[in-house]
């Protein structure tokens, strides 16, 4: 009899896990249980009035190859598209005006000094303090540190408030006072220890990339890519890669319990069903995963339940190009908290990627909420739509009403990697050692982007296949005694 593996959660992590199981162990009977009426989790592409609207992630970074490879594996290689080569970079709101982010500035550190020295975003004092980073000594000790503490220690407060905070806020929608630098930006910690300075480290890496590009013929892909038909193309292709009877929608899982060498899973709405599985992959956000595991291991459930999450609203607005006074010669802008506005960022979707809006129109996405402005999400949809319009109209010199408005609320969709997160994940992994045929996947652990979710799902699949082929069984009795 073929072994059965049940994947709980039909977002990108769960679908990647199920697809990878089928790819590396076709003899396994895969089942995927999704609590809602559709697959994809937060990823959802909507076609409205000729516009292609993304409700969450609209692309993926290419420095990690997992997303590109998965697209190719499911037959979407020809549908991969890069960012518009005629535009580049982003802007930041600075003292009421939109300014280009210095060329070579990468989230937390510059790779080029001249653009930083000539930018209008920092004052002369701020530039001087930032440049002195090269003389700041390495941190001693291995204690985790907040992102704000790390950046202010190395570059000073002004660069943090004017550049780093809005850029990081656009990625994690988080409070930088609580965000763990080890969990979110570990490469900068490594850079500090290796080079003694982030500026030296970034400049060294830039030289290495230039040399690599010269010898290897240049980069093949832009830094960010998406799919011609939207991110839901990947969800649909992953669904088609699984057998028709492998997926069950509207099947929330209430709990799982070890049953001999297998797992017993309770799922369903009106009349919950019990079914047996040889292994389980839980690919849901931390909070529902903690509830499902409460009947397995109290300590594991508690650790997972301690991972907090933030919510946001994504407002899509469309205008005729002549309504907009700004030149839009970038992919969007971020808004520092110090500026006192009600939006986190705005992305120019139709400038970044082709096929997002009809000719002569512009589609943009405005982000509201996050950990630091969560109270705004208590507003009804109509007020959030009006708030987003009011903000971008001021900043981009827009006249008249939008051609199209659309809002998506992402409830508790963004995990918050607070200080101590790496230690929490290490303890979660220690508890999982008692259960070889149980694996976790998803962005609650590490990696909030699409490539990170894909990688976590694939690693979970590999863990399970390895355990099943080794003949591992659950050790609940030992875990209960520990």
Short description:
With about 475 residues, the chain is of the alpha+beta class. The chain has helices at about 10-25, 65-75, 115-120, 125-130, 145-155, 155-170, 180-185, 185-195, 200-215, 230-240, 285-295, 300-305, 350, 380-395, 420-430, 450-470, 475-480, and strands at about 5-10, 30-35, 45-50, 50-55, 60, 80, 90-95, 95-100, 105, 110, 225, 245-250, 255-260, 260-265, 275, 280, 310-320, 330-335, 345, 360-370, 405-415, 440. The radius of gyration is 23 Å and the shape is globular.
Description:
This protein is of the alpha+beta class. 37% of the residues lie in helices and 22% in strands. The strands form six sheets. The protein has a seven-stranded mixed beta sheet with strand order 8-7-18-19-20-17-21. Strands 12-2-1-16-22 form a five-stranded parallel beta sheet, with helices on one face. Strand 7 and strand 8 form a beta hairpin. The chain is globular.
Shape: globular
Helical proportion? 25-40%
The main sheet orders its strands as: 8-7-18-19-20-17-21
Largest β-sheet summary: 7 strands, mixed
Strand percentage: 15-25%
Cα Rg: 23 Å
| Tally of individual helices | 17
How many strand units? 22
Structural class: alpha+beta
* N/C terminus separation: 33 Å
In terms of per-residue confidence, which ranges show pLDDT below 50 for 5 or more consecutive residues?
214-220, 476-482
* Subunit arrangement of the protein: single chain
Q: Let me know the average pLDDT.
A: 92
């Amino acid at each position: 009899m073929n072994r059965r593996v049940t994947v709980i959660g039909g977002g990108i992590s769960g679908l990647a896990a199920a697809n990878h199981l089928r790819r590396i162990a076709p003899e396994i009977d895969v089942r995927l249980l999704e609590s809602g009426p559709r697959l994809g989790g937060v990823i959802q592409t909507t076609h409205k009035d000729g516009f292609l609207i993304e409700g969450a992630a609209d692309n993926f970074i290419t420095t990690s190859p997992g997303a590109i490879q998965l697209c190719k594996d499911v037959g979407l290689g020809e549908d991969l598209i890069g960012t518009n080569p005629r535009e580049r970079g982003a802007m930041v709101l600075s003292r009421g005006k939109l300014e280009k982010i210095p060329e070579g500035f990468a989230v937390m550190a510059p790779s080029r000094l001249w653009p930083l020295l000539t930018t209008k975003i920092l004052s002369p004092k701020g530039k001087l303090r930032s440049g002195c980073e090269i003389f700041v000594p390495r941190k001693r000790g291995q204690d985790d540190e907040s992102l704000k503490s790390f950046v202010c220690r190395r570059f000073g407060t002004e660069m943090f408030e004017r550049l780093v905070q809005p850029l990081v806020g656009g990625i994690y929608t988080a409070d930088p006072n609580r965000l763990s630098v080890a969990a979110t930006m570990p490469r900068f910690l490594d850079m500090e220890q290796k080079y003694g300075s982030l500026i030296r480290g970034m400049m060294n890496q830039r030289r290495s990339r230039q040399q690599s590009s010269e010898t290897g013929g240049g980069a093949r892909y832009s830094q960010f890519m998406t799919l011609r038909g939207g991110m839901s193309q990947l969800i649909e292709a992953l669904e088609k890669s699984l057998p028709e009877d492998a997926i069950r929608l509207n099947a929330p899982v209430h709990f799982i319990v070890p049953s001999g060498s297998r797992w017993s899973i309770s799922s369903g709405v009106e009349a919950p069903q019990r079914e047996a599985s040889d292994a389980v992959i839980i690919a849901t956000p931390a909070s529902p995963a903690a509830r499902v595991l409460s009947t397995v291991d109290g300590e594991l459930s508690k650790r997972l339940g301690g991972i907090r999450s933030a919510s946001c609203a994504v407002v899509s607005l469309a205008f005729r190009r002549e309504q907009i006074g700004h030149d839009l010669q970038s992919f969007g802008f971020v808004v520092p908290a110090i500026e006192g506005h009600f939006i986190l960022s705005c992305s120019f979707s139709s400038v970044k990627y082709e096929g997002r809006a009809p000719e002569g129109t512009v589609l943009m996405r405005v982000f509201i909420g996050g950990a630091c402005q969560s109270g705004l999400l208590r507003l009804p949809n109509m007020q959030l739509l009006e708030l987003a319009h009011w903000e971008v109209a001021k900043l981009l010199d827009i006249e008249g009403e939008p051609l199209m408005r659309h809002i998506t609320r992402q409830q508790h969709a963004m995990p918050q990697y607070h200080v101590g997160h790496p230690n929490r994940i290490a303890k979660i992994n220690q508890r999982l050692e008692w259960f070889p045929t149980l694996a976790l996947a998803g962005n609650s652990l590490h990696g909030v982007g699409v490539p990170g979710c894909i990688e976590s799902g694939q690693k979970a699949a590999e863990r399970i296949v390895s355990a099943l082929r080794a003949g591992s069984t659950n050790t609940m009795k030992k875990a209960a005694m520990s």
